[in-house]
Amino acid sequence: MKCLFKLYLNCLKKNFKILFFIILFQFYIFFNLSFKRYSHIKKYKIHKNINSNKINILNFQEPILPSNLSSFTNISSAKEFDKCLLEEFSYSKIHYKESQYDNIDLIKHLNVIVMIFAGRKKFLENNLKYIRKLLTNKLINEAHLWLYTKNKNDIDYIKENSNLYKTCGKNKSYNEIFTEIKENSFNITVKTNNIIFIKLNNIYEIILNNNSYNYINIYENNIIKNKISFNSSINFSETNFINLKISIKKNSLIIENNNKEYFNYKNIENIIISKIEIKSEGTAFWKYTQIKNKGIFLLNVHNKNVLSNMREAYYYYLNINFDIIIKIDDDIIYFSDTNSFSRYVYFTYKHPEISCVYSNSLNNVISFTYSGIHGLIDNYLIEKRRKIIPNLFKYSHYYYDFESAEKLHYSFIENPDKYFQILRLPINIDKCFNINYKTINGSNHPFYISANVFALNKKNYDIIFNPKKIKGKFFWDEGYLVFKVKRKVFYPNFYSIHLSFTPQRKSKIFNDEEIFKKYKRLSNFTNY
Question: Which of the residues 228, 299, 430, 501 could staple to 166 if both were Cys, CB 3.0 to 4.6 A apart?
Answer without folding.
Answer: 299
